[in-house]
Design brief:
With 126 residues, the chain is of the alpha+beta class. Helix content is 34%, strand content 33%. The protein is built from four helices and seven strands. Strands 2-1-7-6-5-4-3 form a seven-stranded antiparallel β-sheet, sandwiched between helices. 38% of the residues are buried. One of its GO terms (biological process) is mitotic actomyosin contractile ring assembly.
């Protein structure tokens, strides 16, 4: 399956409206759906946030110029919220998944979908 198919499948769930897959270092975009593309500074903040969340905790998480309040940050997952919208970022062995969910979608529904994709990618050594 191509990387593009993974992001398209996230959107097909109806719970995610934008998704992207970046390299683990955050230096290259592998696939995007729903017009999600992050400037280098934003994906760089996310990539660094997995190892040290202090910057994200004090400055928030930025996705396409929008500031999200950080809800969770650890070595695997970063979750953010802005009003009724949210973002889920999950790091695997070789990728960073970034997914945005719109108002009306429960955070738990969106995070479950993205985390399951991450689990699959990890199981196949990605």
């Amino acid at each position: 399956m191509s990387w593009q198919a993974y992001t398209d499948n996230l959107l097909a769930t109806g719970k995610i409206d934008k998704a992207a897959i970046y390299s683990r270092a955050g230096d290259s975009l592998w696939a995007a759906s729903g017009a999600l593309s992050l400037p280098p500074a934003e994906i760089g903040e996310i990539a660094q946030g997995f190892d040290n969340s202090a910057y994200l905790q004090s400055n928030g998480l930025h996705i396409q110029g929008q500031k999200f309040m950080m809800i969770r940050a650890d070595a695997r997952s970063i979750y953010g919220r802005h009003d009724a919208e949210g973002v889920v970022c999950v790091r695997t062995k070789q990728t960073i998944l970034v997914a945005h969910y719109p108002a009306g979608v429960q955070a738990g529904e969106a995070t479950k979908i993205v985390e399951q994709l991450a689990d699959y990618l990890i199981s196949v050594q990605y």
